[in-house]
Amino acid sequence: MATEVQTTNINTPAWVVHKAKEDFKLEEITLDEMQDHELLIEMLYSGICHTDIVFQTGALNICPYPACLGHEGAGIVRAIGSNANRPDLKIGDKVLLSINYCKECKFCKDDHPADCIHGTRLHLTGVRPDGTTAAKLKGTDTSVSFHFFGQSSFAKWSFVQEMCCVKVPEGVKDEDIPFLAAMGCGYQTGAGTVENILKPEPDSSIVIFGLGTVGLTALMAAKYMGVKRIIGVDIFDHKMPLAKELGATDTINSKSVDDIVKHIKDLTDGGVDYAVDCTGVPAVIENMLNMLAMRGTAATVGVPPTGAKINIDPLVFLLGSRGYKGCREGDSNPPVYIPHLCRLQRDGKFPVEKLCRVYDYKDIEQALHDLHDGKVTKPVIKW
Ligand SMILES: [Zn+2]
Ligand SMILES: [Zn+2]
C-alpha cells in the first residue's frame, strides 16, 4: 500500500447530525481502517448542497443517525489503497470529489455513471459498498453513518471511494480550488443538464426556473454555448442582478406577473425551446411544460416532494412533438466533464467563483443561515 501517513484509527473533526432536524454538531470521530480500494483524503474544502440539508432534516430518511454528510469535497490525496485502480493519482495530488458508481452496470459501462443502478445505495445510505462504516464517535462504540456519496466531506479526513476522485487538471490555481469544490454535484448538475442533455442550439431560447447554484450554472452553460435568449425566473428580486451578470437576457420575478406561461410565450414568439426546472415545485413544472414551443424540451432537475403528481395533456405533447426529461447530476461523466468545466472556469467562461463564499469550518451554522437567507448562493467550508 502506497502510504506516507497512518491509515488506521484516524481521529478527525467532523460535523455530525445526531437526529433528524437537529443542528450539525462538531464532533471528534475515529475512522477504523482504510480499505484497499479507498483513498485517504485530507479535505481542504467542502461545498454545502441542498441534499445535505435534506438528510439533516430527515426529509429522506435512508441514512441512519448519527451521520456525517457532505458531498462536494476538495482535498489532497494522502494515501492510496493497494487495490484502488487509480494509476493517474499519486500522493499529494489535489482532487475534486464527485459521485460514486459501480463501473459494472450497463449505464456505467455506457459512460452514464450518474445513472448507475446502484447510485442510491452507494450515495445515500451511509455505508461502504460492503455495508460497513469506518466511523465511530471517538472513544465510544457508537457507529456513525459515513461514506455519504462515497466521501463524507463534512469530515476533515475521510476514506474516499476510488471512483469519487477527479484529479484537479493542470493549470488550475490553488486559490481557485475552494470555488471548484462543488463541481462534483451542484455545478455539473446545472451545466450538464444544459450541455449534455438539452443541447440547445445558439439560435434558440431557454428558460430556467430557480436561480440557486444549479439554476445559475445551467444559465452559465447556456451562455457559453451561445444561446440567444436566456430567461431566468425566480421569486426573489435579489437573485436577478447576478443572473443578469452571468448572461440572462431576461429575468422575471414570477410573483410579479399574472400569467407566467403567457408572459414567457409572448417573450419567445409563442413558446420556449428549452426549459429547466430547478425548484421541484409541481405547479412550476406544469407551467414549464405548458410554455414549450413546437419540438420544445423540458428538464426536471429540482427534487419534487415524494409522491407529487403533475398534469400533462398528452395530446398537446404529441401535437407539439414535445419532450420532458428527468436529469441526474447533469448526465456527467465526472473524470471527463469536471476537468472540462474547470478549464471553462479558468478561461472565465464558467465564473462559479461569483456564487461562492468561503467560511471557516467552525462557522457551518452561519453558512447555513446565510444560504437560507439568500445571502450566499454556494457556501463552502474551509477545513
Ligand atoms: Zn453502475
Ligand atoms: Zn448535491
TrEMBL record:
Q: Which organism is it from?
A: Zasmidium cellare ATCC 36951
Q: Which InterPro entries match?
A: ADH-like_C, ADH-like_N, ADH_Zn_CS, ER, GroES-like_sf, NAD(P)-bd_dom_sf
Q: Name one GO molecular function term.
A: zinc ion binding
Cofactor names? Zn(2+)
Enumerate the UniProt keywords alphabetically: Metal-binding, NAD, Oxidoreductase, Zinc
Q: Which family does it belong to?
A: Belongs to the zinc-containing alcohol dehydrogenase family.
Gene Ontology CC, one term: cytosol
Q: What is this protein called?
A: Enoyl reductase (ER) domain-containing protein
Q: Which GO terms describe its biological process?
A: formaldehyde catabolic process
Please report the stretch or stretches of sequence annotated as the Enoyl reductase (ER) domain.
Answer: 19-381
